[in-house]
Amino acid sequence: MDADSDVALDILITNVVCVFRTRCHLNLRKIALEGANVIYKRDVGKVLMKLRKPRITATIWSSGKIICTGATSEEEAKFGARRLARSLQKLGFQVIFTDFKVVNVLAVCNMPFEIRLPEFTKNNRPHASYEPELHPAVCYRIKSLRATLQIFSTGSITVTVLKRKYTLPTPLDSEQGPT
């Protein structure tokens, strides 16, 4: 490949995982009986609820903690979480939408070339680990970004970014400015 030719890489966000709390106890049996698109996992003590728009799956615990997966952007994750909270309100619960956090973002991209994994691992030893007997990809960790890259020999890369103590800014935060 020439050094002059610039190739644009398409990085596609495939999953955003978020967590929020309802600040009330949730009756899982009532959600299972009266809610729509619900799977009650009584043995584990949780309810799975699916929304069609945005396409997310929520894991609901009786403590009021809810984890949403499947969104393709942080905004879509927040919108889906708020829709889920609203549907729980319609079931009769005193839900207050609080402590929203994006905890994980998963993205994929494809390189326009193949990667020789043993050589790549040898050249990037402190950050990269490769165990071909256990997994077909190199695990490359970037501690400063809290990111893990799974690099495959085909050139496919999966990026997982952990987020902690992060909340989406609200429109009011950006309008007020410094006081």
Automatic annotation (TrEMBL):
Matches recorded under InterPro entries: TBP, TBP-like, TBP_dom_sf
Coiled coil location: none
Location relative to the cell: Nucleus
A Pfam cross-reference name: TBP
Keywords for this protein: DNA-binding, Nucleus, Transcription, Transcription regulation
Top-level taxon in the UniProt lineage: Eukaryota
Function: Part of a specialized transcription system that mediates the transcription of most ribosomal proteins through the 5'-TCT-3' motif which is a core promoter element at these genes. Seems to also mediate the transcription of NF1. Does not bind the TATA box.
Known partners and oligomeric status: Binds TFIIA and TFIIB.
Family: Belongs to the TBP family.
Protein name: TATA box-binding protein-like 1
Native organism: Felis catus (Cat)
